[in-house]
Structure prediction request, 289 residues.
Amino acid sequence: MDDDKNRVQEIVKRITDLPTLPAVMMQVLSMMQDPSTTANDLGKAIISDQALATNILKVVNSAYYGFPRKINTITQSILILGFDTIKNIILTTSIFDVFSDKEEKGRFDRERFWEHSIACGVATKIIAERMGFVMQEESFLSGLLHDIGKVVLDEFLPDDFNKILKKVEEENILIIDAERSVLGVTHAEIGSWIAEEWNIPHSFSHTIAYHHNPLLAKEDTIIVSIVHVSDILCSAIGAGSGGNQKVPRINTEAWLKLKLNMSAIESILKKFDEEMEKASVFIELSKSK
Prediction:
């Protein structure tokens, strides 16, 4: 484990201009930890960033939430949806903002990457709901963030990442195996590290770290397994692209842990198509950055 940490740290040293979440995002996260914070207090903090406030209202009023009446203010949004849901909406929109699409196009297709990430978020939420998980928004965000390490590598180590993608194409191997060969660390490790740097709740960084190897997870094992299965399911149906040329194998024990069968998958995919239409607001946000 120490060797793994050291390798991650060596790669991290090569990443200059470390991406940070917007100041308002950090302020909001801090305020949410204070039990005396009111919806009005939080609303005032959010509207200090007009672009963020606009995006929140766009998401809140989208088909994804399906409210019958238009919600006009941030404070109203907080009162209706609650602090946790608003926090997750802010995290989602902030991450799109941090990793704005770069002008130079390499081998990595950012647009298809975000489509895959959003699809994985949708699938994770559907399976979590099927299993009776209470925190649906956290499930969506866990799926959305699972491959964030790839976009970190594309943004900050593009030459290395292009070598990785070339190796994937030429040798018909998975990205995670090509990363180990070229860098000695994987997007899962890098993504987990960046989530910790951002002080995002530990469950997210843990899920990112182990979504390829759910059996290694020491905690949050169900959500890690759900993200693992969702990721592969979305790859299998061609929902966007995480950069692989072939579909990874599902871990058998993770599959059994979720008690899924082909009948359940058919039901999940039917709901998936409906939910992806509703989630188009997130696709639009990812493209507008």
The mean pLDDT is 88.
